[in-house]
Phenolic acid decarboxylase
Amino acid sequence: MAYSLRDWLAFLDREGKLKRIKKEVDPVFEIAALGKQADGIYSLLFERVKGYEMPVVTGLVGERGLFAVAMSTTVEGMLDKFAAAVENPVPCRLVSSNSAPVKECIVNKDIDLFKMFPIPTHHAKDAGPYITAAILIAKDPDTGVRNISIHRLQISGPNKLGILILPRHLWHFFSKAEQKGRPLEIALAIGVHPLVLLASQATTRIGVDELEIASALLPQPLELVKCETVDLEVPAGAEIVIEGRLLPGVREVEGPFGEYPKYYGPASPRPVVEVMAVTHRRQPIYHTIIPATREHVLVGGIAREAVLLQIVRQAVPTVKNVHLTLGGSCRYHAVISIEKKHEGEAKNAIFAALASCSEVKHVVVVDHDVNIFDPEDVEWAIATRCQAGRDVFIVTGAMGNKLDPSSNDGISDKMGIDATIPLELPAERFEKISIPEYNDIKLDDYLD
């Protein structure tokens, strides 16, 4: 099966980016602790997990360059390629169960997720083990069009999951079904190629199938196979698929859970998933995403950057690039590079960025000579090209993100900083110092 998790792991292994942990590890905290220490450096494959025969992998994509490699492009061209896939999705290819690795083992009775899978507990106050790397597939009850997304899923019973659903497409689907007193069928695919994870985070209108976005990102159409107990299609090369349904009118306490802003999302009554069947490969690999690691925030951040670039480009055609920073959890802080031609363009870029997504909270706009991926360079631009009374403005009481603990139940202030050079000032005042032949001279050549 091409373009599966196993293909990606083989690539990481060849590149020396996959480390195999042969010592036995505990799924409670130990996997998370080691994965966090390797964050952005290595992917880790835990071959011996206490109490299980199944290995666990984490940290599939700890740097944005790996996403570029997966998309067969450069870091600079990555956002445009992702945006093109969103605009031009490619139909997936349906295959038979006989040719789908995820159908090698089928379990439809006596399901006990606690015993079947080495699902880690990540943080000190987490309510228990959580599935964190599953793409959730569902269909619009009215149109039948698929949607995929990622949610935190608490193992609250042998065949029961608690789920956090934010007010996006899945919530819309579930609300439709619940109003009619019907369950919403879902499937959870664990252990997929990172581009499938990335596609799940695309910001689109209802009616766009993110699996087809993944299909457009891959060199060949994504292969899907029908589920056993629900009317859904899932990646045929997934390691594990959990089939179930969201129960109407049922709410149970879910949480707390350590989230991407590095704080705990609080416990609250939330919807419940009843598990109906499980299919998996022989000797499957369980994938977990450790919350607040680069793997976690980059998956969502890069998809959001692609949308942000397109929206800002409509307001300011000379935009060069955009970046949702790691320090802002790849959600809250945006840095935008423009080649300024007219005064006011920086503020227009800020307005566009704040309107692009409710999560964006602070926006800095810099000139194109500033490296937006270098926090020191961005801070230098703010320090030397910005005057607070002239270049900083605040919008109060806007819709933000409920996971931001500083917000008032999601109501948040927003700030824009124009750190571009004023066009009316002499350009020589802002000329960067430079050393001739700096890029040609190599220190290693002078060291013994």
